[in-house]
Structures are given as structure tokens and as C-alpha cells.
Design brief:
about 650 residues, alpha/beta, 8-stranded mixed β-sheet, 7-stranded mixed β-sheet, about 40% helix
């Protein structure tokens, strides 16, 4: 029993350890499931806070139809920038690359004409200020709070890198364990004409294993300088801030810009709080800005992101909102989340609390399953899974994301493994019981024992009817036969006797030389067990009498048997050494039955039973009172009887009324 308990405990701990490994390594399939749960929580708990601080200017399909295909002339972008600035915009971010010159600039068109065979080509009537659209954009950007994108990566070194941000660290924890943001050897900057006139933020994106964008790269390092992403740089420009304060808390990094606190992951990313009910309320078509059909107050005190949702390659992302989410929407949602305090703190898969939760839920599930009834065992893991998800909802509502997947998985695995082990134990017990009792009782009784579990096989006190048999003068008979004949004779004798015991529901205890011991009412309760034992004894005598004719022909001998029967309390169970046990009964009742069998020769009868047997079979058994005896080891005496038959076997009286 102790070894089984240890195995079950080891099984539970193994289950929690396995889930802990899965949480640490995060296989792709489980990671996708974890992300899907996060999406459900995020979209379900999106609040209806004011989201009017951000505006998206979308170069959409109607705008492209009216003003030409993408990429647009920088002259159009410059016009939009001036419009936003003149109407009170706080900051403007250009969510597209400006790494190449505008091919629609008149100077570039003129160069192409001259290279193409028209060296004398000129453009009359075009003012010098309009010859270079990139310079036009640079002049417009210089007077606007504009942020444009750069790209970090394996590019040629730059002589004059852009300005980064100042990172101020608070607390000994973060100073001892500084955050390791992504590092890049170099960068690709926008056109030289724009450099130094605008703020720059990197455009590098991040996708999860399922291809969806849920976090935005906020901070990265290159050449020892910390750079913010386009979104964070735009927010800082609107707040006139260039310092990010950061401290390390129990759950991760906590940053602050201009009094706004938010969570930053160790990899420099910030979770984006997407909202599915915006329905384009903060989006303005770029075409309306160019043709003047817009409300001038729409830009006042707004952070504006300009991009193209029509550009499927660069302007659209796969997010929890869908596979064609405008990239500007991700920027806008992140800025909104920081300003409104909706950025959740993500407890990583390698945080100690995750493993404590896995261990705690696993232990509750595993131990609980072992203590519950088998039909209730599957209910506990389900209850724990629901509890994990309810707890995750409460945490998310209070700004903390704890994935319920790993604790739920621990509840299932830690319950499943003990159930499998218990099933294996049960099957082992079934085989053990079948192997053990198959020698003692009939197959149908074995089936009943297995079905009922036979809880008492390891020891219990029961009322038993015990029967002993012994052959008279067998020592003399065995001297007349060869050893082979002795064995064959005993086998012939024991076979029908054993069948009679088993067929009556009795349990064969053992063979003792030429003697046999059996008992009734164990391991299962048996009705009228004393009467069954008496009937078996009578059938044994009748069977032996019928056998003697054959035995005389085959072996030249006749067998005579004495039977002793007693009923009373006895200890019954598996008894023996550590390596060898036998299901048997011991106690005073067994000793008396053995002594009664020995009295058969003294009183010259075939079956001797005690008073207790006759009382248990009152009115059903016929017998002759023999004597009152006192058995060795007992202080008081009791009556003994010779069983002669059953009352039901007497012929009915005949007559007429």
C-alpha cells in the first residue's frame, strides 16, 4: 500500500513536471492555443474608454483612384503634413518608408528625359521650389512634429546615426539586471534631405508563431544607442519627452513616459490592446484632406498616423482583429492603450508564478482525483479548469495577464496520469484476485469478487463456516501403493471434492496431505453459508461412496472420509511471508473444526458438527446428538452432533383425509 502511495505521488509530480517543461519550451501547437486564448480575453475585455486622442489618415482606395496609385508623390504627403500642423496636430507619424527618391519629382523626370536621348530637354514654367518633391516634403516636415521610419538590421554602417532616447533606470533590481533589448549592427535611414529635420523611429515589426501581430517593438539598441519604435517615438514627440524611466517589478519591466505608465516585455515589446468595436470612427480618408472636404477641428490635439490600407504588402497586418488590419490601426491602438492605461502586464511563461500555479493546481487535481470516487474523478479537473479561466479573467480585468492554459493543462495531466495508474492498479488487482481465488472458488464467484472489489482480502474478521476432511487409514493405504499411484489416487479424490466446494460457493483453503480445508462466507457474503457447508459435506460422502467402486478396480483400495464442521468468527485474509502469501482463515473457529473432524473416528461417524452448526441449520438438518466435549485450549464445553441428512430429503408421509 505504501509503495502504491509513493507511485501515485510520483505520478502526480511527474505530470506537473511535464507540464512545466511544456510551459518552458512552448511547443508550437500549445503556443498557438495560448495565443488564441489571449486574443479571446483581450477582445472580450476591451473597454469603452475615450479613444479620441489618435487619428488615422488612410490613403485608401478612393484616395488612390482620385490622386494616383501608390506610392504617392511626396508633394501630396507634404500637403497633408502642412494641413495637420496648421490645424493643431500634436504629432504626425509617416507609416511608410522614405528610403528612395520620389520619381515623380520634376528634376528626376528631367534627368530621365536627358538620359533617354533628350539632352536638351527643359521644363519651362516649373518653380524651382517645386522641382524636388523630397525637398518640398523636408521643408514641410521641418515645421511639423513629424516622425518618420527607419529600419534596423544588417545594413552598411552609417556615419551619423540619429539621436536615440535616454533610458533612466530606477531601483537596484534593474541596475543589477539590465534589460537586454534587441540589438542590431546598423540601420537604414530615410533620405538625407530628411535626416536631422524630423524624429526617427524604427519600423521593425514582430509576429507570433501563428503569423499574427500582437506586440509592437518599442525599444531596440544599435551602436550602444537606445532607439524607440515608430509608435513610441510618435507618442514621445506628442508629449515633448525624450526620457523613458524604467524600473523592474515582480512581474516585469514598468516604463513611464510623461506620467503614463505601461508594461514593457524583456524583448522590448509592448502588447497592443486591440479593440474590435471602433468601426473606422477614428479614420479619415487622405483624399478628403487633399480636396479640403474635412472638418478642420478633427486634427486638433491629435496624434496622427498616416499610412495606406490599400498597400496589402506593407500597409496591412494579420492581427487578432483579422488578416487585413491596417498597420496604422496597430500604432493607434498602442498609443491609445498607453494614454488610457490599458496596457496589460504579461506574466511570461518562464515566470516563477507560472510554475507555482502549475504545481499547485496539479497537486490539487492529482490528490483530489485519487480521493474521489472513480465516476467523480473527471469532474475535478473540469472544475479546476473553469477556476483557472475565471481567475485569469479577474487578473486581466485588473491589468495582469496570467495564461490559464498551463494550469488547466496541469489539472488535466495531473489527474489523467493517476487515473491511468489507478486503472493499472485495478487491472493488476483483478489479475491478482483472479489468480489467487481461481484456485479456491468457482469462476462465477471469482467474477463476483472482482466486481465487488474484495476489499477484505488483506484481512478482516468475519463469521465463517469451516469444514475439514480427512481420509481414514490413508497412511496404511499409501504403503500399499507406489508414489505415482498415491499421487494419482489423491488427485482423483480431491478433484470432485474441490468441485463440490467451489460449486456451493465455498472457498478452498488448502490441501494438507490427504486432508482438505474449506470455508464459506468469505471473501464475499454468502447467505445460509452453514447449510451450504453441511450439504457439501453430505455430497462429499455420497460422492466418495460412488467413487469407491472405481477406485477398487483401479487402485485396489476403498477410501473413507471424516468431516468436521463448525461456524463462528475467524480472521481471514492474505497471510504468509513477504514473498509468499495465501488467502486463508485462522482462529478458534478453524481449530474447533479441525478437532471435530478428528472426533469422527472416536465416535465412528462420518460427519461431526458443533451445536453452533445445528442452531444455524435449525429445522433443516437431521442429526444425532453425540456428546458434550471440551476442546483443548477452550475452558467451556459444547455439544457435538452426527449429521445424518437433510430434513428435505425425508420421504413425505402418505395418507388421505
Amino acid at each position: 500500500m505504501q509503495s502504491r502511495t509513493l507511485l501515485q505521488a510520483l505520478c502526480i509530480l511527474t505530470g506537473t513536471f511535464l507540464v512545466g517543461l511544456l510551459c518552458f519550451w512552448q511547443p508550437v501547437l500549445l503556443k498557438k492555443l495560448d495565443l488564441a486564448e489571449y486574443d479571446w480575453f483581450m477582445l472580450r475585455h476591451a473597454t469603452d474608454t475615450d479613444r479620441s486622442s489618435v487619428l488615422v489618415v488612410d490613403i485608401d482606395e478612393p484616395s488612390l483612384k482620385k490622386y494616383g496609385q501608390w506610392p504617392w508623390s511626396r508633394r501630396h504627403i507634404a500637403t497633408i503634413l502642412r494641413t495637420i500642423t496648421d490645424n493643431g496636430g500634436l504629432a504626425v507619424a509617416l507609416d511608410f518608408s522614405l528610403f528612395e527618391e520620389d520619381r515623380t519629382s520634376p528634376k528626376n523626370i528631367l534627368q530621365e528625359l536627358r538620359k533617354g536621348g533628350c539632352p536638351e530637354a527643359v521644363l519651362d514654367g516649373v518653380p524651382e521650389a517645386l522641382m524636388d518633391h523630397d525637398a518640398l516634403l523636408a521643408r514641410a516636415a521641418q515645421n511639423s512634429p513629424v516622425v518618420i521610419g527607419m529600419q534596423l538590421g544588417n545594413f552598411p554602417p552609417v556615419k551619423d546615426p540619429p539621436k536615440g532616447v535616454r533610458l533612466r533606470l530606477f531601483g537596484e533590481a534593474i541596475k543589477k539586471n539590465r534589460p537586454q533589448f534587441p540589438s542590431y549592427p546598423s540601420m537604414l535611414r530615410p533620405l538625407p534631405v530628411l535626416q536631422g529635420r524630423v524624429a526617427e523611429g524604427f519600423l521593425n515589426g514582430r509576429r507570433d508563431v501563428d503569423g499574427r501581430t500582437r506586440r509592437n517593438f518599442a525599444l531596440a539598441e544599435s551602436g550602444g544607442i537606445i532607439y524607440p519604435g515608430l509608435t513610441l517615438r510618435t507618442l514621445m514627440r506628442s508629449l515633448n519627452a525624450n526620457i523613458i524611466t524604467m524600473r523592474r517589478t515582480f512581474f516585469g519591466l514598468r516604463a513611464c513616459i510623461g506620467g503614463h505608465f505601461f508594461f514593457v516585455a524583456e524583448d522590448g515589446t509592448i502588447p497592443i490592446p486591440f479593440h474590435k468595436h471602433l468601426d473606422g470612427k477614428r479614420t479619415l480618408s487622405a483624399g478628403k484632406v487633399l480636396d479640403g472636404t474635412y472638418d478642420p477641428h478633427v486634427f486638433r490635439d491629435k496624434i496622427v498616423f498616416i499610412g495606406s490600407s490599400a498597400d496589402r504588402g506593407m500597409g496591412q497586418l494579420s492581427t487578432p482583429l483579422g488578416d487585413r488590419t491596417p498597420r496604422m490601426e496597430a500604432h493607434a491602438s498602442l498609443v491609445d492603450g498607453i494614454l488610457s492605461g490599458e496596457i496589460r502586464t504579461l506574466v511570461g511563461n518562464r515566470h516563477p508564478l507560472q510554475y507555482l500555479l502549475i504545481l499547485g493546481v496539479g497537486l490539487v487535481s492529482g490528490v483530489g482525483v485519487l480521493r474521489l470516487r472513480p465516476w467523480m474523478a473527471p469532474v475535478l479537473p473540469l472544475v479546476l479548469m473553469v477556476a483557472c479561466h475565471v481567475g485569469a479573467q479577474i487578473c486581466y480585468a485588473h491589468g495582469l495577464w496570467f495564461s490559464p492554459l498551463w494550469a488547466s493543462l496541469s489539472a488535466v495531466v495531473s489527474a489523467l496520469l493517476p487515473i491511468i495508474l489507478r486503472t493499472a492498479f485495478s487491472e493488476h488487482d483483478r489479475l491478482r484476485i483472479k489468480r489467487m481465488f481461481g484456485r479456491y472458488v468457482s469462476p462465477d464467484v471469482v467474477t463476483r469478487i472482482i466486481d465487488h472489489g474484495a476489499e477484505g482480502i488483506d484481512g478482516e474478521q468475519r463469521e465463517l463456516t469451516v469444514l475439514f476432511t480427512d481420509l481414514r487409514g490413508f497412511t496404511t493405504i499409501s504403503e500399499m501403493l507406489t508414489p505415482h499411484q498415491v499421487v494419482a489416487l489423491l488427485n482423483r479424490y480431491f478433484t470432485p471434492m474441490t468441485d463440490l466446494v467451489r460449486s456451493s460457493g465455498g472457498t478452498l483453503d488448502k490441501y494438507i496431505g490427504d486432508a482438505l480445508m474449506a470455508f464459506w462466507n468469505a471473501p464475499l457474503d454468502t447467505d445460509h453459508h452453514t447449510l451450504l457447508a453441511v450439504k457439501t459435506a453430505l455430497q462429499m460422502q455420497a460422492t466418495l461412496e460412488n467413487m469407491n467402486a472405481e477406485l477398487r478396480k483401479e487402485f485396489g483400495v476403498s477410501l473413507h472420509m471424516g468431516v468436521g464442521i463448525h461456524v463462528g468468527p475467524a480472521a481471514v485474509g492474505n497471510i504468509g511471508s513477504q514473498n509468499l502469501t495465501s488467502y486463508t482463515a485462522v482462529g478458534d473457529t478453524v481449530n474447533i473444526a479441525s478437532r471435530l473432524e478428528g472426533l469422527c473416528r472416536q465416535y465412528n461417524v462420518t460427519i461431526v458438527a458443533s451445536d453452533a452448526v445445528m442452531q444455524a441449520c435449525a429445522g433443516q438438518v437431521e442429526g444425532v446428538y453425540l456428546d458434550s466435549v471440551r476442546v483443548k485450549g477452550r475452558h467451556g464445553g459444547f455439544g457435538i452432533w452426527s449429521i445424518t441428512g437433510l430434513v428435505s430429503d425425508r420421504p413425505a408421509a402418505s395418507g388421505s383425509i
